[in-house]
């Protein structure tokens, strides 16, 4: 929930204004494509961080097994 914490300080009117500006800048046809691309990018980033974390954990386990 921390990712949306900045919305707590914004009024509903401000959020609607931002949404309208985005709609005017990109158009209704482009917004789903932009959201889809953003979602894919976030998913790839999460997968990469999980892979790095798994590699680090495996390295620590291997290092502990070599000591024993």
Automatic annotation (TrEMBL):
TM region positions: 6-26
Pfam families, alphabetized: TatA_B_E
Membrane topology: Single-pass membrane protein
Domain of life: Bacteria
Keywords recorded for this protein, A-Z: Cell membrane, Membrane, Protein transport, Translocation, Transmembrane, Transmembrane helix, Transport
Location(s) in or outside the cell: Cell membrane
InterPro entries according to UniProt: TatA/B/E (IPR003369), TatA/E (IPR006312)
Family: Belongs to the TatA/E family.
Function per UniProt: Part of the twin-arginine translocation (Tat) system that transports large folded proteins containing a characteristic twin-arginine motif in their signal peptide across membranes. TatA could form the protein-conducting channel of the Tat system.
Assembly, per entry: Forms a complex with TatC.
Protein's UniProt name: Sec-independent protein translocase protein TatA
Organism: Algoriphagus sediminis
Gene that specifies this protein: tatA
């Amino acid at each position: 929930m921390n990712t949306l914490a900045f919305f707590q300080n914004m009024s509903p009117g401000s959020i609607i204004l931002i949404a309208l500006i985005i709609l005017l800048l990109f158009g209704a046809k482009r917004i789903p494509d932009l959201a889809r691309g953003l979602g894919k990018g976030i998913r790839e980033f999460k997968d990469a961080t999980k892979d790095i974390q798994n590699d680090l954990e495996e390295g620590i386990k291997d290092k502990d097994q070599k000591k024993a």
